[in-house]
Amino acid sequence: MILASGYLEADDLARVVEVTAELGVRMVKVEGVKEDRIVFLIEREEAGEVKRELEGLSNIPGVKCVYLAYYSIDGADQEVPPGVLEH
Predict the structure, then answer these.
(1) pLDDT range class, residue 73, cuts 50, 70, 90
(2) Are 36 and 13 in contact (CB under 8 A)?
(3) Residue 21 predicted with pLDDT over 60
(4) Which range, of 25-29, 36-40, 75-79, averages the lowest pLDDT?
(5) 3-state secondary structure labels for all residues of the chain
(6) Are 5 and 70 in contact, with CB atoms under 8 Å apart?
(7) For the whole model, what pTM was predicted?
(8) Where are the domains of the chain?
(9) What fold does the segment set 2-71 form as a domain?
């Protein structure tokens, strides 16, 4: 599972409800809202799906900016074989 988290900044407070509703339609989790900022979490099986979703967030009507805070790396949830990180 690939994860990406960050927040969106809405054009104004009046657009927050509209933007959060659209995130729900896109199956993007809303983790919190503070004023005009909406914290989101995207969970997808493949990195390409996450990338497409992130790219599409800025096209949502009412979104001024998208800020990415965290992005997991494909395979990061797998155990590292012994000796790989040793020098």
Answers:
(1) confident
(2) yes
(3) yes
(4) 75-79
(5) CEEEEEEEEECCHHHHHHHHHHHHHCCCEEEEEECCEEEEEEEECCHHHHHHHHHHHCCCCCEEEEEEEEECCCCCCCCCCCCCCCC
(6) yes
(7) 0.82
(8) 2-71
(9) Alpha-Beta Plaits (3.30.70)
